[in-house]
Design goal:
The protein is mostly helical. It has one domain. It has 7 helices and no strands. It has helices spanning 2-9, 13-21, 25-51, 59-89, 95-105, 118-137, 141-160. Helix 2 crosses helix 6 (118-137), helix 4 (59-89) crosses helix 5 (95-105) and helix 6 crosses helix 7. It is globular.
Length: 164
């Protein structure tokens, strides 16, 4: 699993192609996301303590919110990406393939445990996730950008709906 983590962190397309086709890697991808969620939650909690004001959530609140958000985000984004790629661009992929490639892309978010570095890790994650989605859907870079942008808009809409 370590070589896959290093490959994913580097944005290596061959690594994403490998995990895409390895159904046994779904559990590994889930482990990567759980670690990212916990480390991101710790980082969010530390940032709250360092940067937070009077209305900032507690360390525990930031930790729990980040863990739940990361796990749900992985599941929702994988499903949305699969749906958009298949429906609009004729990509031949499964939800399992998207769970695996996007899951392994979450290794970049392990760096969010370090206060202030989280933003840079988020940018790194976007780059790695782009490579993962392109490999998982086997589509062009332009179509991958569209899938990610459309998926982002859908996620924003879905996050707003419960508040209405």
């Amino acid at each position: 699993m370590i070589p896959r983590l290093i490959g994913a962190l580097k944005g290596d397309v061959a690594t994403f192609e490998e995990v895409e086709h390895d159904e046994a890697a779904t559990m590994q991808a889930a482990i990567v996301v759980v670690i990212a969620a916990v480390l991101g939650g710790i980082g969010a909690g530390l940032n709250t303590g360092i940067l937070g004001g009077d209305d900032a959530p507690s360390f525990g609140g930031a930790l729990i919110t980040t863990i739940i958000g990361t796990l749900l985000g992985w599941l929702v984004w994988s499903a949305i990406t699969h749906f958009i790629g298949s429906s609009l661009f004729g990509a031949q992929s499964s939800i399992g393939e998207m769970l695996r490639v996007i899951g392994f892309a979450h290794v970049a978010l392990w760096l969010t445990v370090i206060p202030v570095v989280g933003g840079l890790a988020g940018l790194w994650f976007l780059w790695v996730a782009f490579k993962a989605v392109r490999a998982g859907l086997d589509i062009s870079s332009g179509k991958t950008v569209l899938v990610i942008l459309i998926g982002f808009v859908i996620r924003v809409i879905l996050s707003i709906l419960p508040g209405l």
